[in-house]
Design a protein that fits this description.
By secondary structure, the chain is of the alpha/beta class. It contains 18 helices and 16 strands. Helices cover about 30% and strands about 15% of the residues.
């Protein structure tokens, strides 16, 4: 395993590439470059805005899907049983734009995945709106080389299609359920504007499956949009957080049931619980939160991983009872990158215990180049990784993530860091004083921050489980050819699995 990564050198981060990535050969020639700048792409995602303004219909639609799955005989536990106590799997999040930034992940992924048993995609399998028609180029084709089955939990973008494409591909269910009628005089707005699911061309899906993922070992049908994978050493629990992050009452009851007992557990969710140094516990309809279930000592969760935010973050949170739960964000496996430089000096855990990828300095340097280009002021905005790292260190009061000299940042670098949202210490900068990088209009602005050349700063996880321990490694996908065979390891943690109650 290689020793260099983004923490050791600029070359390790992919700022300088020794050779171009071979992934170029995988990108389908006829697919137009995916761009969030296209109004049609944003329009197809409009259900997000409607759900937030007028009410999220995901819970009601999910209830009907789950009822249909049960009716056809799916056991209520929604559980896949695997008998081997020792196994490995790959975990990706927010993959499916179908462009170069997704395909750049494929060669390093396949190399790092040697010997693994299955793969999981956590959140946003297909952008922009989960359409079945997008599965051939954004799912079957890129992962055709992975020999094992792939399970998934949907993200908000998969729900913009009413989950129809997702259920068709992963659960072998064709479900086209209309959202429940919105009430009140304003209900006419979402009723008129709600985007109905795209058509499913079963023949096209069958052909894509047969061509790319048709081997017997690649085929799988998962129990539902939420599921558990039960093994003798670990239970992996995947929840479906819909568009706005709430679990329906029935899924909440299921989650409590599969979480019971002392067997060690790992949660995979469409919305991370700890992210950007804030805790979002995840509401359950009828009361309670996902995080309360994860923290309950009787349930023995050791790890909770969420997609949705497109980078890597790890918070080893120590609870009052002395246990530590690792909370990870792992949504950086293909789509545009969310900035990490807006993360304050952490308070949820000690800054020294916090890990993120890309490093905040690299994130700021990347965004400074984008803003320099957009505003046609590269001379003012563009910061080298070293200049950006110095500015981040200055504003946050943290140690630099790479072995640069501790030089003072220039006034220009401090200005750029301030307007691009680097907080001061633990305090987020007032919104009106900075250019948009993350929040509103993050939906548009950060998603416009999609680039198609290295370093991509993509990442994916490999999880290795034995009877006694679980090891997670975060690999980088930079897009450089010299990083494909043996992708850099940006972070790793080993967790002891204790098969006993509290
Ligand atoms: Fe996403």
């Amino acid at each position: 395993m290689r020793a260099d990564n983004s923490r050791t050198s600029e070359a390790g981060a992919g700022w300088t590439c020794g050779s171009p990535g071979t992934f170029e050969e995988l990108v389908p020639a006829r697919v137009p470059p995916f761009s969030w700048r296209r109004p049609s792409v944003l329009w197809r995602s409009r259900n997000d805005v409607l759900a937030r303004l007028f009410g999220d219909p995901s819970n009601a639609i999910r209830r009907r899907c789950v009822a249909a799955l049960r009716e056809r005989g799916t056991p209520a536990a929604f559980t896949v049983h695997r008998s081997a106590p020792e196994f490995s799997f790959m975990l990706l999040g927010d993959t499916g734009e179908g462009d170069r930034s997704q395909y750049a992940v494929v060669p390093p992924l396949l190399n790092a995945a040697a010997g693994t048993d299955f793969m999981v995609i956590a959140s946003d399998v297909i952008y922009p709106a989960g359409d079945a028609a997008d599965y051939p180029d954004k799912f079957f084709r890129p992962y055709g080389g992975y020999p094992g089955p792939i399970y998934a939990i949907p993200g908000n973008h998969d729900w913009y299609d009413g989950l129809r494409g997702f259920l068709r591909v992963f659960c072998d269910l064709d479900a086209d359920y209309a959202p429940p009628p919105w009430r009140g005089p304003l209900g006419i707005v979402p009723r008129l504007l709600w985007r109905r699911p795209g058509e499913v061309d079963q023949k096209v899906l069958d052909e894509a499956r047969a061509r790319y993922r048709g081997a017997p070992g690649q085929r799988s049908v998962q129990p539902g949009p939420y599921w558990a994978i039960d093994t003798p050493s670990l239970r992996i629990v995947g929840v479906d957080t819909g568009i706005t992050g709430t679990l329906d009452r029935e899924q909440g009851a299921w989650l409590r049931e599969v979480s019971a007992g002392p067997k060690p557990k790992m949660l995979i969710t469409g919305k991370p619980i700890h992210v950007d140094d804030t805790c979002r516990p995840g509401r359950i309809e009828g009361g309670g939160t996902v995080d309360a279930i994860v923290r309950d000592p009787a349930h023995n969760y050791v790890l909770a991983v969420g997609g949705d935010i497109h980078n890597y973050q790890r918070y080893p949170v120590r609870l009052d009872d002395g246990r530590t739960i690792q909370y990870l964000v792992a949504g950086g496996s293909g789509a545009f990158m969310h900035a990490t430089h807006i993360i304050p000096r952490t308070s949820a855990v000690e800054e020294d215990a916090f890990r993120c990828y890309p490093l905040r300095g690299d994130s700021l340097s990347r965004y400074s180049r984008l803003y320099g280009r957009w505003l046609r002021m590269p001379g003012l905005f563009e910061l080298t990784p070293q200049e950006a790292t110095a500015a981040v260190r200055h504003r946050l009061g943290i140690r630099p993530g790479r072995g640069y000299d501790a030089t003072e940042p220039s006034f220009r670098a401090r200005f750029v860091a301030a307007v691009l949202g680097v907080p001061r210490g633990r305090r987020a900068r007032p919104r009106f004083l900075r250019l948009p990088v993350r929040r509103l209009p993050q939906r548009f602005r950060s998603e416009l921050a999609d680039w198609d050349e290295p370093p991509f700063f993509k990442s994916f996880l490999r999880v290795d489980v034995t009877e006694d321990e679980l090891r997670v490694r975060c690999h980088a996908a930079t897009g450089c050819g010299d990083h494909e065979a043996d992708p850099p390891v940006e972070d790793g943690v080993t967790i002891a699995l204790r098969h006993r109650g509290p």
